[in-house]
Amino acid sequence: MNRINRWKQFGIFALLGILLSWMISCSPNSTPSGSATAGAAEVEFWTMQLEAQFKDYFDQLIAQFEKENPGVKVRWVDVPWADMQSKILTAVSANTAPDVVNLNPDFAAQLAGRNAWLALDDRIGETDKAQYLPNIWKASTLDDKSFGLPWYLSTSITIYNQELLQQAGISQPPTTYEELAQVAKQVKDKTGKYAFFVTVVPEDSAEVLQSMVQMGVTLLDDQGKAAFNTPEGKAAFQYWTDLYQQGLLPKEVLTQGHRRAIDLYQAGETALLTTGPQFLKTIATNAPAIAQASSVAPQITGKTNKKNVAVMNLVIPRNTDQPDAALKFALFVTNNENQLSFAKAANVLPSTIAALEDAYFTQVGADAPALDQARSISAKQMQDAEVLLPSIKDIKELQKIVYDNLQAAMLGEKTVDQAVADAAAEWDER
Fold it and tell me: InterPro entries, from UniProt (predicted)?
């Protein structure tokens, strides 16, 4: 599921954004494509690149829903992940949107700011709402208003090469960024290799930006202004700058993305890899010897003990002519039973409390294969997990500003204090 790391790599087409704002504000009562046919309510359901692997699952899911709700028909449309953003922008602006859409909160929040989605707080009872993990529910809110239902989750873990750590005289993988810096030096001194790779390419992974939050940095204040020009923000910039300038990070962290982290780990050139559990299968296929030496541990974090999670959700366009049927179907897709079933099929995590407490996640033996161990570790992390980045429409712009200035500090073009101050000023003045 490479797309989970790429979900955050999006851009908004300015013209479509303007069109969308205008159409939503001026045409609240027009009719979308999900209209009733032959006396039955039709719910049009869009997913993001799931049909190839999970057609049988969704066929059965929809058939069960239609059996329990004989007055409703569901039309399923699967959209390639690369096309979803442009397609849903066009559909919503043209009032031809589906009735239920699979998105991720980062992108959905951009449209929530334009009032594109059905408001859910007055439509969902506390009993239904209480089934979801509270921190995950917050991911689909904007200005304390709920615009989506949580669906499936993915969280990073640490995959580590036991043999390479042993060569460096390290018995346990690091659990904090403070320990990571010590391990990085020891691995480099003892083996000549790097402990890990983390990208600071502005358009790629947000891992470094997330690490700042884990270290105790507040990125933005309540008014959306920069809040990271603080001792904590400077310390986070200093942390990554020191690692780079001390030669403890590969030079290409400035130019290559997260894919390079996987390649280096598979080649035995790094000891640690922060990624999703699903990449264990990739490593086993591409580098069996490395997979044999690999074990798993929790996600590395900072003093906050926060863990990051990637969320997929379901949203309902505000102009749907089937709000009740659409909401009933979205709640059905994301209920405990169906989330657990999909989590098992797709090797992801559910966002409901009861499903996450199933024995499939909790009863994994110490001698179980690494993939099973990873599943258990991921599930346990959900108690501390949350979407660490602010729910704002310009989050990638914030990442670019921070990463550009962090790179300048790494390269010695700016002091850390100047880099932090410039990043904050640039964000506030944009």
Answer: Bact_solute-bd_prot1, SBP
pLDDT digits (tens, 9 = 90+) for 103-149: 998 889 888 888 999 999 999 999 999 999 998 999 999 888 999 99
How far apart are alpha carbons 382 and 151 in whole angstroms? 14
Mean per-residue pLDDT, 73-101: 95
Q: Show Cβ contacts of residue 13 under 8 Å, excluding neighbours closer than 6 positions.
A: 86, 89
pLDDT band, residue 39 (cuts 50/70/90): low
Instruction: Tell me the per-residue pLDDT of 383-417, one tens digit each, with 9 for 90 and over.
Output: 878 989 987 778 889 999 999 999 999 999 999 99
CA dihedral over 126, 132, 133, 135, signed as positive or negative:
negative
Say whether 157-307+388-429 and 3-151+311-356 share the same fold.
Answer: yes
Tokens 């042993």 belong to: 166
Choice between 255 and 107, residue whose per-residue pLDDT is larger: 255
CA atoms of 100 and 164, how far apart (whole Å): 47
> DSSP character for 253?
G
Domain 157-307+388-429 homologous superfamily, CATH: Periplasmic binding protein-like II (3.40.190.10)
pLDDT tens across 197-221, in order? 999 999 999 999 999 999 999 999 9
Instruction: Report the 10 Å Cβ neighbour count for 25.
Output: 10
| pTM greater than 0.85 | no
- At 8 the pLDDT is 40
* 137: alpha, beta or left? (left if phi > 0; alpha if psi -120 to 50): alpha
Q: At what angle do helices 336-346 and 51-68 cross, to 10 degrees?
A: 160
Rounded to whole angstroms, what are the CA distances from 72 to 39, 100, 313, 336?
9, 14, 22, 21
Q: How far is CA 422 from the centre of its chain?
A: 28
- CATH top-level class of 3-151+311-356: alpha beta
Closest alpha carbon to 401 in 428, 421, 368, 427: 427
Give domain limits for the chain. 3-151+311-356, 157-307+388-429
- Which residues are 226's β-sheet partners? 220
**Distance from C-alpha of 36 to C-alpha of 156, rounded to nearest angstrom:** 42
